[in-house]
């Protein structure tokens, strides 16, 4: 069977609007209404981050996670992976404005074919990506591969609830995964070989933390 080509819906006009809106204070409203999982993600990442680390942000968009993480690094860098040209253009503009371009490396590719070497990064993060994926198993398998032994994964996304089912069922097409429940995401990460898997609901969102065995 030929593998379906990965794609994103965040292109063209929608990509430009997304890159703009996803970098605005309106995100605080989203978090207040839906759940503060990405704030919890950043808190966790900052607690383990060292200035020389390499962090991979998959589905980075216009830099919602990458930019605050890059600000905390000195010799380290954030590798930012996304398929959307418009989102990555927004990220480049914001990185210049925040004077962190030297700590940002952009790779325009699908999140399940990063092209990175095995064990290339110490931390993998993502926000609001999992529900868009057509093949979450392939994606998580790739992220586990590129993580160093003992490395950390922190993923935040929508959780399946009555509200998210109403707002976003098949928002990204019939093939998209749609939001996970706590158990489904825990199983996905455990089956990819990760340990210390903890999935915590935050109202309509969730935060998953996991480690690659040392
Ligand atoms: C909802 S946005 C979230 C962006 C960012 N993480 C944030 O929180 O603002 C999802 C991003 O994932 C990207 N994306 C979706 N599926 C992808 C795939 N298979 N490969 C690469 N990027 C993908 C989209 O282009 C988009 O920029």
Helix amount: 25-40%
Mean pLDDT: 93
The kinds of small molecule bound in this structure are: S-adenosylmethionine
- The number of helical elements comes to 8
- Gyration radius, rounded: 16 Å
* CATH topology (level 3) name: Rossmann fold
Outline type: globular
| Number of structural domains | 1
CATH class: Alpha Beta
Strand order within the widest sheet? Answer: 3-2-1-4-5-7-6
**What structural category do the secondary elements indicate?**
alpha/beta
- The name of the CATH superfamily reads Vaccinia Virus protein VP39
The secondary-structure element order is: HHHEHEHEEHEHHEE
What can you see in these coordinates?
With 214 residues, the protein is an alpha/beta fold. The protein has a single domain (12-211), classed as Rossmann fold (3-Layer(aba) Sandwich), CATH 3.40.50. Helix content is 36%, strand content 23%. The chain contains 8 helices and 7 strands; from the N terminus they run αααβαβαββαβααββ. The chain has helices spanning 12-21, 26-34, 37-48, 66-71, 85-97, 136-146, 162-168, 182-191; strands spanning 54-58, 77-82, 104-108, 121-127, 147-158, 195-202, 205-211. A 7-stranded mixed beta sheet has the order 3-2-1-4-5-7-6, sandwiched between helices. Helix 4 links the parallel strand 1 (54-58) and strand 2. The longest helix is centred in the middle third of the chain and has 13 residues, at 85-97. The termini are far apart. The model has no long low-confidence stretch (mean pLDDT 93). The structure holds S-adenosylmethionine (SAM). S-adenosylmethionine is lined by residues 6, 8, 10, 22, 59-61, 64-65, 82-84, 87, 110-111, 127-129, 132-133.
